[in-house]
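Shall we go through a protein fold together, starting from nothing but its sequence? Please make up or recall a protein chain and show it to me in full. Go ahead whenever you are ready, and we will take it from there.
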Amino acid sequence: MRKAPMRVLLCSVALLVASCSGAAGGGGGGTSGDPGAAPAKDATLTLEVYSKFTDREERELNKVLDGFKSKYPNITVKHTGNQDDDKLTQSIQAGSPPDVAISFYTDNLGNWCQSGAFQDLKPYIERDKIDVNQIPQAVRDYTTFDGKRCAMPLLADAFGLYYNKDLFAQAGLSGPPKTTDELFEYAKKLTKFGPDGSIEVAGFSASMPFYGNLAEVWSPMFGAKYLNAEGKSGLAGSPQWKEMFEFQKKLVDFYGVDKLEKFKAGLGDEYSPDNAFHKGKLAMALDGEFRTAFIADTAPTLNYGTAPSPMSSANSSMYGGGLVTGTIIALPKGVKNPGASWELIKYLTLDTGALVQFSNGINNLPSTIDSLKSPELKHQPQFQTFLDIYGSGKLVTKPSTAIGDAHLKAVNDFAEQWVAGKVPDLQAGLKKVDDQINDALAQKQGK
């Protein structure tokens, strides 16, 4: 099943392990200050790949990995899917790291960079004269931490609005909402209640965390930022966060807490064919471009459209943009053959043909400007929205922190309590979240 880049509560991650064996063909080193030499053309190596990819996406990655043989015909790549973040961390701690690590999430990048678990790639980039400006700024941002480039992007994910065209037509709506005020009004018009008052179709879900409804997906719509200029959590002092949670409460009040929870409990899993949007139970949903592949696979007759996420009135200039995140790929500490590892990283993240092939295979956004413009990209029409978002120059990403995804989880946990009506005072509740996050940051930074 497709990864969920924003499912921070699950913390699902992929690994790509390249364990080199056989005749040595690449330089040693393994430290961030001493880049390893590329393997010789006739080097015999085995690169063992671990990733979180499964099923269709695992097969597509295998096809891309096969292309590495065109450059190094004697290098064998062995790929095992469905590996996770815990295994990556444990392997590094045990002194037996993968040679290349691929993660579905940027959330732990700060931890990995700060601890040195991921090596600084700057020496390799400078040696090979790589222009990182071929990667969009926001993507460059989420693959670095505290000025250190300890990862590269391997495809990207942008988030936007999916809407059911048949349900829109039934409600007399001709196009998607562009503002959060319109989103609320559309949600009311699209919602269908049963004779007993239960929700049969929800115009737009207010539950959080739920599917693509995560605080980090909603926050760009309101211009809400996780960290202030001092690098601390400042939710309680942010009118944008308050507006976001007040919008959520207004939507919850429309449905009713109990009705909303009962409705949610009866919906299918996010990554199953029974996804509520696939089944016409949700008229609008926020999700990434990868959802187009799931719909094509499990709900091919669904009549749907895609659009940028609606924006609040105060944040209207950001319409057309949105949240971007994506898969990251890195060189772990202590690898035996860093030169060979880097060559594979470089191939997967900078080779236009490889990026386009992988993008076409799993319906993710290609992560360089050249690959984004390639005429070889082949996607269904709904995918174009996300290409436009990605090229909008209005991208927002999540901040990498030394506490991993703890700040994201704290806000999503709060949102869940807020939806359930368990937070009587919004200001006081946000202040508690600030204290929790700032305490964690201070502890990690030894302050």
In short: Residues 1-32 have pLDDT under 50 and may be disordered.
